[in-house]
Amino acid sequence: MDRVNDAWRVDNERILKTSGTRTYKASKREGFRAMLIALTDMGMIVLNQNLDVGYILAKSPSPTPLTRAEWAAVKEIEEPRLRQLVGEEIGDFYAQRAVLEAGSYEVLVNAFFVERPSDLEVSIKVQLEYVGPRAELARRHQPPPTALKYALHKGWDHFERTLFIQRETLQ
After folding, report:
1. Which of 35, 46, 105, 155 has the most CB within a 10 Å radius?
2. Element (H, E) at 121
3. 36, 56 contact by CB (below 8 A)
């Protein structure tokens, strides 16, 4: 799994560099409130939050925030790549039995808010935490890159809609 984690980490860092941070004409309070609502709307549980620091930590059982249909689309793309990477290490016979499962993991989402003089910078980071049986098996720590893309797209969409609605209704 080290090879899989390394390959997915490289892809995920590239994805986060291009899609993990956005700027908005909003206050930290507005953005923070919108993100809390967006995360809970997507089925995440907020574990920690601090407006002054500009930080939110939320989690959910995998594949949330993705739906089962979205996870099936991720599997269709990423499972062959998983098998290829595993096959390069242990051979094709065992690699063909590798399955990309959502269970036994929790998705952790960190959101960071930096209020600047002219805008608000919001960053999202995603990681996995293994919560399954304590077997001595290799585990992945990186989400599949396609899952990260889907989750970021969905997260930003929820956040932006919530921010827009807040502005229209709370003024």
Report:
1. 35
2. strand 120-130
3. yes
Give the domain CATH number at 14: 3.30.310.80
pLDDT tens, 96-123? 878 888 888 999 999 999 999 999 999 9
Adjacency order of strands within the sheet including 120-130: 21-24, 120-130, 105-115, 55-61, 45-50
CA 16 to chain centre: 10
Residue 51 lies in a domain: yes
| β-pair type (21-24, 45-50) | unpaired
Q: What is the total count of domains within the chain?
A: 1
Residue 62 domain boundaries? 2-127+139-170
Q: What is the pLDDT of residue 135?
A: 64
Whether the CB-CB separation of 127 and 141 falls below 8 Å is answered with yes
Give me the mean pLDDT over the 84-104 stretch: 80
Q: What's the CA gap between 136 and 89, in Å, rounded?
A: 18
Q: In this structure, is residue 132 part of a structural domain?
A: no
